[in-house]
Amino acid sequence: MAFETVASLDDIEDEGTFVVDGEPKIVLFRVGTDVFATQFFCTHEDAPMDDGWVGDDCTVECPWHASKFDLRTGEALGPPAFEPLQTYPVRVEDGAVMLDRG
Amino acid sequence: MSSFEMTMPYQRPSDAQASDMETTFRLSQFLYAEAQAIDERRFDDWLAMLAEDLHYEAPARYNRLPRERTKEWASEDEAKHFEDTKEYMQLRVKRLQTDKSWSEDPPSRTRHLITNVQVAHSVSANAYIVDSNFSVYRARAADDEEFFFGTRHDHIRENSSAPAGFEIARRTILFDQTLILSANLGIFF
Amino acid sequence: MALHPAPITLTPGVRSALEEKVASLIDSETGTIGPEIYADPYLHELEQERVFGRCWLLVAHESLIPKAGDFFASRMGEDPVLVVRQKDGSIAVFLNQCRHRGARLCRADLGKTKAFQCTYHGWTYDLGGNLVSISKSDAVGGDRIDKSEWGAIKVAKIHNFYGLIFATWDEDAPSFEDSLGETRWYWEAMFNRPGGTEVIGGVQKWEVPANWKFGAEQFASDIYHFDYTHVASALAMMPEGMEYQEPPPLEGRQFRDRGHGGVATPMVEMSDMQTAMAMGMEVMRYNQSTRDAHAKLVGEQAAKQTQFVHANMFPNMGILPLNQTLRIWQPKGPNAMEVWAWTLVDRDAPEDIKKQCRIKTQMTFASSGVFEQDDAENWTEIQRVLRGTKARKTLFNNMIGANESKDPSGKYPGRTDRAQSEAASREFYSWWRDLMLQPVQGE
Ligand code: FES
Ligand code: FES
Ligand SMILES: [Fe+2]
């Protein structure tokens, strides 16, 4: 599928998040000038990942049970979550954040 | 750094160099003499061991969530159990010497056990950087007893005109309790 | 460390026996106190139910939790509560107890979080205390449990009074303002400051082996002790070259109503000198510089003609406006309290003024405070003597004061007596007695 512009970089605070509604619902995470995208709900017990703690090491920690995920791969880095988060390709061009929902 | 590691509430001078055996011995003896002056309530002698520009502090301490362990200690501009200059220390001593300071009537019988002394020297701070642990037993009246444990981080200067040859310029006291299990911190550490 | 007796569960029969006892222990007409109210574990339990289970209680200052997710682990009586800033800026207060098997939800004293996850079986609550996740729900049949019914127990009402956060467990509690009764003018004057107030970050906590009511009663009603209890510190703090003189009779009025009490004195040259001695010249000048703005908020009489000295908001919030200490007397069994103390400052004050306030307040009224120490000593010794049976049966005298009800000059509103009085103490105990005699919901 194709990349579509879903936000501008300025919409997202550094180490902040941004929700892209639609099917599927997606969260954008900003680390410096990089932006990552994952599924909205945690794979463990469905916590809303837009409420997670974004780390400058490209991780997000679940707001409920503190499992950490690698934002680049979605991999769960520690319990209680084991399933990876689904990730989505993102491009940042001229301050526009473009997402491919696949 | 693991987040389990304690973040200390003071900066150790980066040029601090471990001192030799003799210096370490002299500074240890100084700390013991200081403790003895306090335990024997010779507070004028004790004041003479404190520098004119003394900074004597004990930050409040908190239980924190794992992600906030670095904030275990009250920061520079937050609550402290002590934050005294020499003038304030003189005032505390003056109060005790009025014979009407009821919280020290009868006086506490304290025993300062000073251990784990480590001495370094810093050219930039122009002082010895002295770490020590304390356990202080406080007995008072009949069945009143309290225990204080903690560590101290001192800056101590050589001063030939001070009676003991040294003076304490800075002391940071780190209590091991968050809730101070005492009716008052009316003794010195 | 103080002795913490095991909690007691009261039954209706025991409660009515205790009511009879309470009624006989407090005589506010003549002014006597039966000191069993400070030492009896059964009365302590009834007090938890009927005083702390009903009154508006200070739980935090909003400056401790400025941003969404900031929390302060507080107490309401012996019950631990979490005070949490919500995403919409409001504040939630709920019991710090998991609804599954009752583990403490949060063991930190303060901080920032996104949710509260119980460490026992992982049940998770949002910032408002709502249960959002029953862990392993699918595997353990968690979907049979209605999460909306198993949130953390919330307080009935919350009120933000110029930055002070109060909460009550009582659905039927009067509004916070009504609960102040005729003392409202005084609290408004103390807390409605230009730009608002804040507390210096963190909190100082220490444990005094004495009943909480000794602190509360003294802050409500007792300037009388000052010249005796605190003489050593007063002597030590005399500026060089000044002679200690007999303190002049205290002008002003002691206010009282609905258990609250305190003292307001005329603002005269001497008041500024007192501030300068207690807090330093710079703070005194700063205070002077705020008076016009303060008068716009609370009027000339409150801002320019009155100096507030000490006060206790029933049951357990103490303040010394002059020394800028704000504290909660947290009960801890009948024989002990924890004092939780802050330095209260104007939010807009310059940083160096805040620093000076912090240092001076810590020096005078705090864990190592030179005045504080002597108060705690007296309270502790009262408590120790009360181990004796004879001592617990011996009435205390609470009769000092002229027992006036109106300020003849008309400057000080509400029910007031002369400044050196125990009228506010009699009010404190008679209000306490009235509450102890009225059942609360859920007994
Ligand atoms: S819901 Fe994310 S770790 Fe449990
Ligand atoms: S006690 Fe909290 S989840 Fe079981
Ligand atoms: Fe006092």
UniProtKB/TrEMBL annotation, chain A:
Keyword terms:
2Fe-2S, Iron, Iron-sulfur, Metal-binding
Where would you find the membrane-spanning parts of this chain? Answer: none
Q: Which Pfam families match?
A: Rieske
Keyword Iron, does the record have it? yes
Q: Which SUPFAM superfamilies match?
A: ISP domain (SSF50022)
Keyword Zinc-finger set for record: no
Rieske domain segment(s): 4-99
Q: What is this protein called?
A: Non-heme iron oxygenase ferredoxin subunit
From TrEMBL, chain B:
Pfam families xrefs: Ring_hydroxyl_B
Is Kinase tagged as a keyword?
Answer: no
In short, the EC number is 1.14.12.19
Q: Is the keyword Oxidoreductase in the record?
A: yes
Q: Could you state a single Gene Ontology molecular function term? A: 3-phenylpropionate dioxygenase activity
CDD domains in alphabetical order: ring_hydroxylating_dioxygenases_beta (cd00667)
**What family is it from?**
Belongs to the bacterial ring-hydroxylating dioxygenase beta subunit family.
The protein here is known as 3-phenylpropionate/cinnamic acid dioxygenase subunit beta
Organism field: Aurantiacibacter sediminis
From TrEMBL, chain C:
Q: Does the keyword GTP-binding apply?
A: no
| Top-rank taxon, per record | Bacteria
GO molecular function terms here?
Answer: dioxygenase activity
Q: PROSITE patterns annotated for this entry?
A: RIESKE (PS51296)
Q: Where is the composition biased (Basic and acidic residues)?
A: 404-420
What keywords were assigned to this record? 2Fe-2S, Aromatic hydrocarbons catabolism, Dioxygenase, Iron, Iron-sulfur, Metal-binding, NAD, Oxidoreductase
Query: Which parts of the sequence are annotated with region: Disordered?
Result: 400-421
Q: Which residues form the Rieske domain?
A: 56-167
Q: Which InterPro entries match?
A: RHO_NdoB-like_C (IPR043266), Rieske_2Fe-2S (IPR017941), Rieske_2Fe-2S_sf (IPR036922), Ring_hydroxy_dOase_asu_C_dom (IPR015879), Rng_hydr_dOase-A (IPR001663)
A Pfam match is Ring_hydroxyl_A
Q: Does the keyword Membrane apply?
A: no
Q: Where are the transmembrane segments?
A: none
PANTHER family noted in UniProt: 3-PHENYLPROPIONATE_CINNAMIC ACID DIOXYGENASE SUBUNIT ALPHA, CHOLINE MONOOXYGENASE, CHLOROPLASTIC
UniProt similarity note: Belongs to the bacterial ring-hydroxylating dioxygenase alpha subunit family.
Q: What is this protein called?
A: Aromatic ring-hydroxylating dioxygenase subunit alpha
Native source species: Aurantiacibacter sediminis
